[in-house]
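Hypothesis: this fold can be encoded by more than one sequence.
Test: take the structure tokens below, design a sequence, compare later.
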């Protein structure tokens, strides 16, 4: 009911202690999205799942079928396996098309290079033998290895992993070889982009605390879908914690590249693993929380959509949360109703500011600390 006082939602003690309690984290992946969301939620996060890409089912992918037919007709000298799931999927799709044995025969006669242990495992599970595996599991190492061994006059098949892998293709072509891209689990935009558009709105309004990326195409697709809002979204991703910026977190440097090229600083784990990505989020977000001491001696901490008052958690609706964030950022200075209105959701008016302040005071028992300054606005009464 409009105008009703907000009641605090009190998590249990176990949830309160979780590192991501109070934070909202977006998941842009499609593959393993549920697993990533579950790992984040296990650490206390509230998640928003909005895949920015859709994987084309392999049996329906005419581009993969055409590449497979081409390689069986004219066998490659070198095959680069980049992912385990992609390599297995390629073999399964070929078997479904009645080409499985022919593809394995072609692969058995080629030199196989693996980007990492998962690709290596898939290669060996197929009864094939690799020549080399990248020690650090990066595409850069594969490019350097190809350059060092030479590819002049050779036909090199590159199993893609969702994006064009331009570095691989360019290295082969500039080295005098013929590159054959194999588009395994090709990505396209989602059939329904509404959830992603809602995510863009939430990032621009800074109602999301962190956005996770597990592939470079997913980051690029988010920017494309943002359209006219891309500049505002990038501003939110570039903003520091004290300005309520949204933290972008990528699984590795290749994934982060579309954002880093645009001047966005992206948090990354040391190892490109889903668990490491989650640990990076769980470590980085609590460091961005804002802590203040009020004139009454009470301590408050702002964590995403939650306020901790003397370590007791209170979950607030968006408007009161926006008000206390703005007042906290002002460091005790007075903010006018017009200034606070700029922090509320679109369509709010001056009355909405007063209601948000009232609900904030009632929700966390801070009547004496959220101070009204006559004819000027509101301020937090902080310890001096």
């Amino acid at each position: 009911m409009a105008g009703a006082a907000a009641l605090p939602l009190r998590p249990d003690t176990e949830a309160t202690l979780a590192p991501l309690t109070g934070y909202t984290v977006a998941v842009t992946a499609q593959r393993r999205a549920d697993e990533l969301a579950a790992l984040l939620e296990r650490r206390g996060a509230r998640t928003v799942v909005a895949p920015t890409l859709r994987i084309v089912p392999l049996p329906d992918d005419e581009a993969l079928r055409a590449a497979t037919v081409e390689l069986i007709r004219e066998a490659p000298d070198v095959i680069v396996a980049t992912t385990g799931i992609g390599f297995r999927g390629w073999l399964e799709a070929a078997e479904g098309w009645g080409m499985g044995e022919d593809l394995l025969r072609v692969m058995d006669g080629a030199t196989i290079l693996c980007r990492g242990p998962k690709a290596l495992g898939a290669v060996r599970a197929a009864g094939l033998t690799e020549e080399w595996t990248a020690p650090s599991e990066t595409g850069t190492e594969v490019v350097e290895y190809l350059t060092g061994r030479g590819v002049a006059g050779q036909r090199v098949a590159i199993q893609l992993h969702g994006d064009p892998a331009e570095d691989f293709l360019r290295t082969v072509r500039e080295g005098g070889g013929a590159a054959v891209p194999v588009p395994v689990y090709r990505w396209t935009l989602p059939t329904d982009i509404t959830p992603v558009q809602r995510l863009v709105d939430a990032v621009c309004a800074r109602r999301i605390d962190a956005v996770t990326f597990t592939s470079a195409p997913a980051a690029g697709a988010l920017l494309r879908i943002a359209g006219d809002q891309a500049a505002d979204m990038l501003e939110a991703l570039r903003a520091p914690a004290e300005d309520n910026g949204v933290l972008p977190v990528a699984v590795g440097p290749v994934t982060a590249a579309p954002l880093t090229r645009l001047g966005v600083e992206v948090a990354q784990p040391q190892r490109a693993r889903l668990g490491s990505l989650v640990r990076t989020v769980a470590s980085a977000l609590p460091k961005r929380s804002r802590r203040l001491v009020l004139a009454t001696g009470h301590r408050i901490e702002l964590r995403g959509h939650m306020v901790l008052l003397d370590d007791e958690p209170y979950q607030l609706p968006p408007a009161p949360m926006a008000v206390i964030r703005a007042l906290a950022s002002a460091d005790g200075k007075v903010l006018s109703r017009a200034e606070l209105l700029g922090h509320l959701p679109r369509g709010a008016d001056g009355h909405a500011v007063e209601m948000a302040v009232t609900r904030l005071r009632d929700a966390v028992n801070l009547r004496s600390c959220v101070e009204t300054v006559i004819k000027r606005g509101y301020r937090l009464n902080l310890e001096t």
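Residues 1-16 have pLDDT under 50 and may be disordered. Residues 13-53+190-287 form a domain with the Rossmann fold fold (CATH 3.40.50.10090).
Hypothesis status: open.
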